[in-house]
User: Fold these one by one.
Assistant:
Number 1:
Amino acid sequence: MRTLRPYLPVLVLGVLLALAPLFVTSNVVLNFLVFTLTVALAAQGWNLLGGFGGQFSFGHAAFFGTGAYASAIWQMQLGFDAWTGFVAGTLAGALAGLVIGFLSFRAGLRGSYFALVTLAFAEVFRVLANSSEVTGGAAGLLLPLKIGAENLQFADRATFLGFVVALVIVVLLLVQWIRGSRFGAQLVALRENEEAARALGVDVLVVKLKAICLSGAITAAAGVLYLQYFLFIDSGIAYGTWISVEVLLAAIVGGLGTVLGPVVGALALHGVGELAKSLAGGLPGIDLAVYGAVLVVAVAFLPGGLVGIVRRRDRPRPVRDAAPVEGEA
Amino acid sequence: MYSADIIIEALLNGLLTGAIYALVALGLTLVYGVLHIINFAHGALLAAAMFAVLFVNQILGLDPYVQIPLLAVIFFGLGYGLQRLVIGPASHGRDENILLVTLGLSIIIENLLLAGFGSDTRSLNTDYSFAVFEVGPYLLGQARVFGAAGALATAALLWLFLSRSDTGKAIRAVAREKIGASLQGISVGHVYAVTFGLGCACLAVAACLLLPTFYVNPRIGSAYVLVAFTIVVLGGMGSIVGAMLGGLIIGVVESMSGLFLGESLGQIGIFLIFILALLFKPTGLFGAKA
């Protein structure tokens, strides 16, 4: 039992989310949950690299979009089925992670430079998807409606929600397992001090590459979910900055480098966003303006995120004002 | 294939646009050079400045060029306040935090503009918006010529200010050696805020120069911020000369890739340069160190 204890919170969260459809039948709420959990899944991918590994990406849309487009092309252009499309999309995300990671980590980019280069990669992908034939150009791709479990399309939103919840739980368990593993320890070590980790024999490049591949795969899986739920993607949705921003927001607001953080953060953010929207009476953009304010406040006052408020004792001490003298590095 | 005349004309127009881009990048590189932070809100602040130009034009009917002193002062104050009251305190001096706080600011600004002005794309038409100068066989947009001249003049003024004035010397001292400067009695917090204010004032001037030919919508900032980052990385982070030359290069690249690759695929040229510069020459063409 002892070794299973760390997994308990994830399982409890999973049961709660899985039971949600029993209590709510409103399509609005179910839509909200499906979309929010899709973002939470993508955010967990970001968190693995950014939260645990300390490599902040500003361009996770590159993975989200690659997953969505790869699965759509797999199904529409190559004629395979949706389940293998799910696998193909996830693998494509890992591959994108490998390429972007290899190029940028080998060049030694970190901190703000890594953030900027990922942003640029996502933009390159967006421009390519917007102007190439196979991705449907600016019109995007409309996945044909073929309801049926074998096509990963469900007539009932609650069933789709069940699938999303299952996937989120599997990934959370995986992350919890990684956290306790040797790889997880190496990842945290390089976040805290890359030179020290290297000196202790951690192969920094390999650990970073593993992390970005896994991160890309998880975020790409979320992209496939988006495709299967909305049955439509275009370059602005799949590779847009909105998803890059949402995933880092959810992870930071929920709690960087925590297992539950991204889910808690995504639920809290979207909850506040919906609230702001209904209070502002349809003023466009007001929910996003609130997101931005939440980000500033979270960075200023909540270094451990929402999860950090609850578990003050196991969170790492925030390194406030610890940066010695800027510009000397 | 295009005739040489079309290519030369695109080259000249690219240089003119590039001069204005350089002014946008100048604010960013100045802030980086002194505060060593990447201001992600730079593009959103530019969008805000462009809307301010539109707004003042509608209320007071002032020509964008006449508004330059007014907006430069307002945005200097805005930048000073932002750095002093928000970015400085919220980021606890950590690099990633500053990136995140300025990202948060850019989201707030962008969406407040959306809420306030709607998502329509707007432009400001003046007498010279569509007028051209005929230089030999080439047609150059008058607003672009004025814009480039204004941008170069502003850069020269800024250079003079930094090299001659006491405040400018204090700024350069802080950029070089923060602790040493503060031991000489320079208030580092004040200099940071002044520098940030100067960066925003550059944006306000750039907005006044851009509007007669360029359109604006609340989301335009994200397009400019990437262009500005590309210029700054290419020119070397913190280098003013680098930002000017980088701006001209990027203006030409944009104009050429638009000509040869078409409107949609043409944007890719800038991003590719950005990635290649970061991967292979992160110190830039003129930067001393990364």
Number 2:
Amino acid sequence: MKRNFKDDFNMMAMLLIPIAVAVNLVGFQLANVLRLPIFLDTIGTILVGVIAGPWVALLAGLITNLINAIFNPVYLPYALTSMAIGVGAGLLSKYGFFKKIPKTIVSGIIITFIAVIVSAPITVLVFGGATGNTSSLITATFLASGQQLWSAVFSSTFITEIADKVVSVLIVYFIVQKMSDRYLSKMNYGYLYMKRNNKK
Amino acid sequence: MKQNFLLQLHPLTKFYFSLFILVAVLIVPGYIFSFAVFPILVLIAILAGVTKEFLSIVLKALLSVLVIVFIMQMFFYPGDEVLWKAGIFSITQEGLDYGLLLTSRILAIGAVFILFFRMTEVRDFVKSLEDKGLPPMGAYVVLSTLQIIPEMRRQANTIMEAQKTRGVETEGSLFVRAKAFIPTLTPLILSSIASTEERAITLESRAFSAPVKKTSLHQLTKNSADRILPIVYVVILVGLLVWRFFL
């Protein structure tokens, strides 16, 4: 099915963006309240990518980081990471990666790689290797044990991201499974996950 | 009540000022200029009457980052001129310089954006972008996001309390706490997306997506300072560029 770029931005998709951004922030807050060791701050972006497509998710990622940056400008450069995660999730969904659990886990790993490849250079070039979150400690450990800066940042980012992203995509998978056909039929990529008439 | 002159500036004038500082800090070499920017920003904050919020957010958001970035560079930046050594840790002159450069830039750029958002209502900023050509849908998305966030925070707390009453454990081992995440998030997301349909109907009933020019209740005005200041920024930047690369 050929799809026009502009078709992705229909009103239902645009109205999903504020929800996605709020889910990103609330997810992060809940993870804090429950004292979980992962961030879970991209659930909304991935969810939008899965049901509304890569370009809407790109916008959702961008807006998430812009709004975070109002109170903490450190988030601003990482807008690129959020946008890349959104596009990645959208493309994976288009090729049917979120239909079954095993493929969903694979897509979680792919999204981890996307996140690491985009965010590690930002950490190195903008912040010189550490921004004060948990992965900074791991980076410092690697550096002290004699690794080069780039490989230390790449590996520490990977370690902190992998669990986060795999859990996030699984949560998204379960939530999409619970959505009603009636709502999914209004989203651009919703037909992939409808329980009835799953033929198109 | 007479409004503060700085706060009355057009949002874009203030935004261009942030971009001006960003570019200036990246053009001028060395850390002295970048560190000098911060007192200027504090002065502007005092004149605009937003000192307290400005400083508290700078402390909360930037201090820990600056300390960690500085320590990282001091210990791990490669260099030959060793100043101090203990075991595997050594501080080099190059590391110290690079740490100061990096922290000064992060401080100046971070602080100017914090100052911008303390001096500008997001609503005004979005309106000014809309005047510049941002589609009304984009403006609506940003503004409604700001509204929805506190609403969904409250809702998340309500759902968590309700689930606790049902017997979902939120204390205990990591696994137990992790299991509480999904029963809280799923109802939150599903109920929120159900509400988007109502929003869509409300917007459409006011002809939101009709292909005509929109009118707005909220208008922004430009005064003479808003016309002059952007030109001043550009002149100073061109001057800095010429000084940096041709002299």
